[in-house]
Amino acid sequence: MSRKRNFSKRQLRDALGMFATGVTIITSCTRDDELLGVTCNSFNSVSLDPPMVLFSLSRQAHSLNKFEGCDFFAVNILADNQRDLSDRFARPSLDKWDNVEYETGVTQCPMFTGSLAMFECYTRFHYDGGDHVIFVGEAFNMKVGSPAAPLLFYQGGYRAMTPDASDSEWG
Ligand SMILES: Cc1cc2nc3c(=O)[nH]c(=O)nc-3n(C[C@H](O)[C@H](O)[C@H](O)COP(=O)(O)O)c2cc1C
Questions:
Q1: Whose CA is closest to atom 9 on ligand 1?
Q2: Domain that holds residue 86
Q3: Residue 164 Cα distances to 15, 25, 160, 169, angstroms
Q4: Residue 65 is part of a domain; what is its CATH number?
């Protein structure tokens, strides 16, 4: 059987974009106290016991080496009203953290107030993920925010979730 691909990179991207996801910002704090933050929709749950999660970071990300050197990372699951924050951390920039409000977790990782949920994790594994590096972490500290509409990403753009007709409010 031939393993020749029947799709182009563009077609693959478009097809993968059919998978609707939430949006997170993964943060960390280096040993030199530099704050890191990257918008990621590759976040996923892995295991409940032990509690493990993953995200994958592009080998082209400026912060990749710094994340690889950190023992901890935090996951912020974004609400629909945090689109500006998502945009800000989706661009390489020297002033990502200017005028951004955040709290600091026990790991010193920045956490965004207003997120739907936040997890502080210690990094368990790095795996080769082709043009990405897969980070697997074990969560040990969690904070859940007030129920609110989640920020969604689908086919290359943000989406709003329409609550089911039977739901009167979020949560
Ligand atoms: C909704 C959304 C999801 C994204 N998900 C990822 C992701 O899972 N992994 C990744 O490497 N980049 C992802 N990106 C792109 C990064 O956020 C972007 O490349 C960022 O500039 C990387 O920051 P850095 O170069 O400062 O490290 C995503 C962007 C958006 C808008």
A1: 57
A2: 21-154
A3: 26, 26, 12, 9
A4: 2.30.110.10
Please state, rounded to an integer, the average pLDDT across all residues of the chain.
95
Nearest CA residue ID for atom 26, ligand 1: 92
How far is 89 from 152, CA to CA, in rounded Å? 16
How large is the average pLDDT for residues 62-83?
A: 98
3-state secondary structure of 6: coil
CA 92 – ligand 1 centroid, Å: 9
Q: Domains in the chain: how many in total?
A: 1
In a domain? residue 159? no
Whole-number Å distance, alpha carbon 19 to ligand 1 midpoint, is 16
Q: Which pLDDT band holds residue 171 (cuts at 50, 70, 90)? A: low
